Amino acid sequence: MKIGVLAMQGAYREHLQMLKALGVEAIDVRYEEDIDNIDGLIIPGGESTTMGKLIKTLGLYNKLKSRIENGMPVWGTCAGMILLAKNIVNENYNHLAVMDINVRRNAYGRQLGSFETKALVKGIGDNIEMVFIRAPYIESVGENIEILSTVDGNIVAAQEENMLVTSFHPELTEDLRMHKYFVDIVAKSIK
Ligand code: GLN
User: Fold this and answer.
1) CATH numeric code, 2-189
2) Is 146 a catalytic residue?
């Protein structure tokens, strides 16, 4: 099993370290060819507008979208959630547009929007460490979406079959449980 981390920009190194800590082979994804060599992909936090532009100008967009639509497991954290959403409620564009969620960008405000908390994530565990940095949250979801976690009434984790999204950054904590959950999704998908 090989898991890729989209390495255009943002917090990709930390995800690679978490995967390695779990004993999983993990690679940077920078070129279109890299997408052929992975069983699952993490799209990290960072700046969604920059990442969205780079996946297009560097030629990764079409292959990424089609592999996800064909069932490759993908996990978007923070900006990665924005990249996967079909609808960004406070912007007039979208990016990969594969997951049926309505996401608000910079939902906690631009300057004071960073905080940490611990909360329950359904099917994964309680007191999951969550770091929010100018994070989005999910305002509403389509029919086939399972809501995995809410903080202060806002949806911060959800799943639709092969697609997982979190508003927060587990890769900036010591808590490996979210990564373990995603690794298990990938392992099941290649059985
Ligand atoms: N505010 C960023 C965006 O809208 C996301 C921040 C993050 O990924 N930590 O793209």
Assistant:
1) 3.40.50.880
2) no
